[in-house]
């Protein structure tokens, strides 16, 4: 998931209103911006939606780096379209967060000064063209695994934004798998590159679903509010079960010596990621944390003249008086 460490806040609320609110959630109703909601629900949503939005925007960086170096004009155009989609996803999500009373500028500032995070997966480098395939296949595949259920999340604007996002993410996943299929069936060097990319991105992709359920202290409340629909471990298991046969079809090997089919449980047993690495990356010590954040800061600073111009135009037009004869 693009939102990996979200803390639910418990606040003192009117008990009667809380019961009525939970009854609406349990009945499957959607909560809309003007409806009463617990402050903890609102703050948890702001954190989850904004982290998701930040991840979409930062996620353009490792892919945008390959637009000019894609091997064919067709691949350039497809990758450019994908990067544009990610920007659009960020905008949909920032708009959803704004319905909860959070300004986009405030959310962006919280990202830049470290008070908000983005998905750990985007702090890993994309070293070869095969990485573009792996990012689409695994990273977008993991995103879809989490985001499809979020179309049923309890907050209306978030759920509706996810409908279009999921459709476009499905295209991204197919685009990535197509690259991997071409690489895996190409020359020996191309297949080696594909296997190397899989080796490097496998465990970071498993980390995208967040920490194991035993260490995820706030999932219970988020699930009670239907902000989250599934637990981290449920989604991670589903992702492994879906992805292993795809790797076998490609003729690639999942880099896990303990991976095996469990006939009794009807699922794969697999090795958990190194959670110390996960927390290290989340806390700013990954291979590309500094590079990614500096790129966002530079973009914000370089765009100041555009924001200033737009604000000046708004102030100028709203200050004019209209004379009616």
- Portion of residues in helices? 55-70%
- Low-confidence spans: pLDDT under 50, at least 5 residues? none
Mean pLDDT: 92
The largest sheet, given as strand count, sense and whether it forms a barrel, is: 2 strands, antiparallel
Oligomer: single chain
**What would the principal axes of the Cα set say about the shape?**
globular
Strand order of the largest sheet: 1-2
Secondary-structure content class: mainly alpha
How many H/I helical runs? Answer: 13
Query: What is the succession of H and E elements?
Result: HHHHHHHHHHEEHHH
Q: Taking Cα atoms only, what radius of gyration do you get, to the nearest Å?
A: 21 Å
Tell me the β content. Answer: under 5%
Distance between the termini: 59 Å
Count of individual beta strands = 2
Tell me briefly what this model is:
The protein has helices at residues 15-26, 39-58, 60-64, 73-98, 104-112, 129-147, 156-184, 188-207, 219-224, 232-250, 275-285, 289-302, 304-319, and strands spanning 260-262, 267-269. Helix content is 63%, strand content 2%.
Q: Would you give an account of this structure?
A:
By secondary structure, the chain is an all-alpha fold. The chain has 13 helices and two strands. Strands 1-2 form a two-stranded antiparallel ribbon. Strand 1 (260-262) and strand 2 form a beta hairpin. The longest helix has 29 residues, at 156-184. The mean pLDDT is 92.
């Amino acid at each position: 998931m693009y939102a990996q460490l979200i803390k639910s806040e418990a606040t003192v609320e009117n008990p009667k209103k809380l019961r009525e609110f939970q009854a609406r959630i349990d009945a499957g109703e959607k909560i809309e911006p003007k409806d009463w909601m617990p402050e903890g629900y609102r703050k948890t949503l702001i954190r989850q939606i904004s982290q998701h939005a930040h991840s979409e925007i930062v996620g353009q960086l490792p892919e945008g780096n390959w637009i000019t170096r894609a091997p064919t004009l067709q691949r350039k155009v497809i990758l450019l379209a994908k990067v544009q989609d990610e920007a659009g996803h960020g905008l949909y999500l920032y708009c959803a967060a704004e319905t909860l009373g959070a300004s986009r500028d405030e959310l962006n500032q919280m990202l830049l000064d470290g008070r908000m995070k983005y998905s750990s997966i985007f702090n890993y480098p994309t070293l070869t063209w095969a990485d573009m395939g792996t990012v689409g296949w695994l990273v977008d595949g993991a995103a879809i695994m989490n985001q499809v259920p979020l179309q049923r999340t309890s907050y209306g604007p978030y759920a509706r934004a996810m409908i279009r996002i999921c459709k476009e993410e499905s295209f991204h996943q197919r685009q990535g798998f197509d690259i991997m299929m071409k690489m895996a069936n190409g020359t020996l060097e191309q297949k080696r590159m594909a296997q190397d990319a899989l080796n490097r991105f496998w465990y970071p992709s498993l980390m995208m679903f967040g920490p194991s359920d035993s260490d995820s202290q706030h999932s219970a409340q988020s699930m009670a509010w239907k902000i989250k629909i599934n637990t981290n471990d449920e989604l991670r298991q589903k992702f492994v079960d879906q992805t292993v046969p795809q790797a076998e079809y490609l003729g690639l090997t999942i880099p896990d010596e303990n991976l095996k089919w469990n006939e009794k449980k009807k699922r794969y047993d697999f090795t958990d990621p190194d959670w110390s690495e996960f927390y290290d990356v989340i806390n700013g010590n990954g291979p590309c944390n500094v590079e990614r954040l500096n790129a966002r800061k530079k973009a914000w600073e370089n765009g100041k003249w555009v924001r200033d111009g737009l604000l000046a135009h708004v102030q100028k037009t709203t200050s004019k008086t209209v004379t009616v004869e």
